[in-house]
Amino acid sequence: MLKKSVVEHTLEAALETGADFAELYVEQTKRNHIAMVNGQVETALGGLDYGAGIRLFCGNRVIYAFVNDTSEENLVRTAREMASTVKGTHLLRLPDWKTRQWQNINPIFVLPDDVEKRKKADYLAAASAAAFAYDPAITQTRTGFLDVTKNVLVANSEGVWAEERRVRSRFTVEAVASSATEKQSGHLGPGGSVGFEFFDQINVEDTAREAARIAITMLGAKPCPAGKMPVVIDNGFGGVIFHEACGHGLEATAVARNASVFAGKLGQQIASPLVTAIDDGTIPNGWGSANMDDEGTPTRRNVLIENGVLKTYLVDRMNGRKMGAAVTGSARRETTVLRLPAA
Prior knowledge:
It is a single chain. By secondary structure, this protein is α+β, with helices and mostly antiparallel strands. The protein has eight helices and 13 strands. Strand 12 and strand 13 form a beta hairpin.
């Protein structure tokens, strides 16, 4: 994405005043989205994001900047302006590059960006028709398809050079059921780190009928009685519940500030012995899977809670410094802004 000489000159400028770590992250992301209401195209959008982020560490202090102009002149100037705020005690030299290599866990066979929009729209129209045909009480449908192709480069002063192309596809369908007194909806949104061959792996009409079934069931459902109830959580929707209830609290961004209920509890029993929670970024073609995280660290399978015992946190590079913990391949950026994900 950038010449190695440009990357090297940028990182060298960032290290001129004694920062003990420098990193350059470059991203190019193309998005396409088609949405239908009642089988008619409502929106068809596309966009391209491009930019770079530069990050410096000096002890536990972080300096960060991002730019859209990735010319060598602008990158070096920005790096020097950042470096001017650092007064380190020693100067680092860039080591030889250690290129990350791995077996690709997300093979892509058909790039969605290469597929005509009409073909994508045909799938959405077929889903809408299937939902309407399920029951006369279905009064509205919304269907959509999103595809994202992201190319990233991470290079840092420890010699890491890592590049990856990430492709995601997602189909969504919502069916609305109506009676004289109320409306209810059913929604499904399967997706993965997969190309347009995704539509060979799912049946959009069956998916739409299931969304319609949920809506019809909700329409005729009686109010849930109050009280203490047993709850069964599967690996699908249960992941969302875990994400919100526990995942954020297991992020090092919270733990390092002692802002998490899980801080200081490694090795302790924090849940029922029936509970084991795993964050796995290596599931082939999984929605959250990747060969590397956004710091260039290979993703891995992290056992967070085992038989109710807290085993580890989700650790990025800076918070790992603060905690004295190793990185877990879990760091994520929202475009060029670094953010750590929940499990």
